[in-house]
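This is your field. Have a critical look at the following sequence-structure pair:

***
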Amino acid sequence: MDARHPEQTLKITFKSRLENMDAAEKKRLDDIEKHGCHVIQVLAEDDCPPFSYSVGIEQSSGYPEVIIIGLKRELAHIMVNE
């Protein structure tokens, strides 16, 4: 059995995951650290409107994540960041 403290194990696990992340995943984490969230945009498809959503707001501030449906990417991005 591993004698390390859970906090140490978590740090080691996170570090090993970070080393295996691609550039896009690292950018998301960097955005969350620098700006408090990362915004993901999903394009419209068939009858479904485009939408944008936040990742990291709850982790960084304790507030719920945000989803914006039906607006252009640029406007949705501004709204999530405000």
Q: What stands out?
A: The chain has one domain: 6-81.
